[in-house]
Amino acid sequence: MLTSLHLKTLFWLAVIAWVLILLIEGQSPTVSLLKPSSLVLFGMITVVTIFEKWGWRIPFLHSWFVSNPNLIGTYKGDLDSCWIDPATGLKRGPIPAFLVICQTLSTIHVRLYTVESESCSVLGAFIKAADGKQELLFTYRNEPRLEKRTQSPIHYGGTRLTVSHATQKLEGSYWTDRQTLGEMKFARVSRKTAHSFQECEALIPYV
């Protein structure tokens, strides 16, 4: 995102260039010409801030002006791990999970909730695949509940999700620094953003 410092720097560079052009052409810059500059700067900062936080969500803009899809909301799905339980020699079944996405024009923050743990994105970004589909990539830090950390310690991992069905579904894979990997599938259940597994569950009856 362009910060107010960036905008001020760009604005005053433009003002300086304008003054230099006037001097080169033999005209004298007057106070009346420069007086509106503070109002223009304030207007620029206000417009950019509003667009960064809210304006970019306008659906009409996504066909030509905004490239990142609007994924804000809560998604319900499951994780299918390839991990084999050494005690049984079998894979664990699908793990119910919720994915919560908060987003601005230039940033994206992802949290994943299961009954046993919570994951929080460290870095996230969109890329466009060769076939034109949008993909969401992010690294994350997973923190299991305290009573689960002897079997499942805190760890880091990465996720790659393909955005499909008009941003209503996310499907892809994940991997961890514990040498485990798996697949995940999610479907959006609400445009609201929950803050815990229980809050996510509470949103489902109101869809």
Please tag this protein with its features.
two-stranded antiparallel ribbon; Lipocalin; eight-stranded antiparallel beta barrel; alpha+beta; 4 helices; 207 residues; 10 strands
How would you characterize this protein structure?
24% of the residues lie in helices and 38% in strands. By secondary structure, the chain is of the alpha+beta class. The chain has 2 domains: 4-53; 73-206, T3SS negative regulator GrlR (Lipocalin), CATH 2.40.128. β8 and β9 form a beta hairpin. The protein is elongated and about 85 Å long.
Mind sketching the topology for me?
Layout (H helix, E strand, L loop, with lengths): L3 H21 L6 H4 L2 H17 L19 E9 L2 E2 L4 E2 L3 E9 L4 E6 L3 E12 L5 E11 L10 E10 L4 E8 L4 E10 L6 H7 L4
Antiparallel strand pairs: 1-4, 1-10, 2-3, 4-5, 5-6, 6-7, 7-8, 8-9, 9-10
Helix pairs in contact: 1-3
The CATH first-level class of the largest domain comes to: Mainly Beta
Kindly give the count of domains. Answer: 2
Averaged pLDDT: 86
- Spell out the helices and strands N to C: HHHEEEEEEEEEEH
Structure summary, number of beta strands: 10
Record the strand order, biggest sheet. 1-4-5-6-7-8-9-10
Regions with pLDDT < 50 over 5+ consecutive residues?
Answer: none
Please state the second-level CATH architecture of the largest domain.
Answer: Beta Barrel
> Structural class of the secondary elements?
alpha+beta
Shape: elongated
As a whole number of angstroms, the C-alpha radius of gyration is 24 Å
According to CATH, the fold-level topology of the largest domain is Lipocalin
Largest sheet: 8 strands, antiparallel, barrel
